[in-house]
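Researcher: Next sequence.
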Amino acid sequence: MKYTHIEREAGAFQQPIPAETIEKLCKRAFGESTEVVAARELGNGEYNNVYLFEFVGRDAVILRVAPRSTGQVGWLEHSFMRSEYMLQPYFAPIAPLIPKILMIDFTHQLLERDYMFQTYMPGELWSNVMDELTEAENDALWRQFAHIVRTISTIKGEAFGMPYPGQQFATWGGKILDTLEQSRREAAGYGLDSEPIQMLLDIASAHVDLLDEITTPYLRHGDLWPFNILIQRQEDGPVISAVLDADQGSWGDPLADWTFNLLERKASPHIQELFWQAFGRPEETPGLRFRTSLYKGMHCCQALNWLQRLNLTQHHKEVYADLYKALTELQRLAS
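Model: Next structure:
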């Protein structure tokens, strides 16, 4: 077996899988006669280790391995893969775009980490080739993307929050307050300045009625952006061929999903307009304006902790500035 992996520092929470363990995982999943030709770690994952496998007499597959449950894994991430498994049936409306789970193992008998084998989805990461495409081609992909986001956001659930083994809530306000409190505790545990998170939590608590205007939990992918989209180039233009990494999926207000945070922060006004035309603009209300500002602050809180875990603390100053900006906006709306 030809085995290649990405070299990382000893303290990184993404650690490679030993070659002998790789072969054991494959034999458990596909039988003792399985012959692995090559196992190559892919570099586009920031949470799971992701490998592409080639076999003798079998289609290529993807292996995703979750990190160990350690202090480097935050309160929100410790059960991502198990939650993704529970959510898989709900992505049925976009089933042709979702990798199929071939085998999943939570026993920790061969490896003290959760892992799953999935079908290999051909295509190129949109984020990697975006600059190679024409403006018209990217515009067409953004419209397709908005349609996919819209389709996901129409799928109804029964409770707010993460699926089992995550926590569920009867109200959207309850879920948001818990998220903010957990973020505050984690930031304080890291020695970060958690005062602005507490201020955000106080404002949210005082106006929970505006959060509870959201009464129906809808499906959210959790990390849907061009870095999790595969495309294929065809004669009549590129098409989205796969939606990857739904391990941060949950139930809630679709507009609180990470996609909409990135849309405002990363996309040009032109792309934002294309997206909203295809997705459909929500009706402007005082509640919507309050929630939008709160979501901005909430995403900043989660980003602070994520950057801390990744040792990217040089970005903290920028995120704190955005957090205080969201706080100022919220205080104005709440007055």
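Model: Residues 156 and 218 are 5 Å apart (CA to CA). The chain has two domains: 2-119, 124-334.
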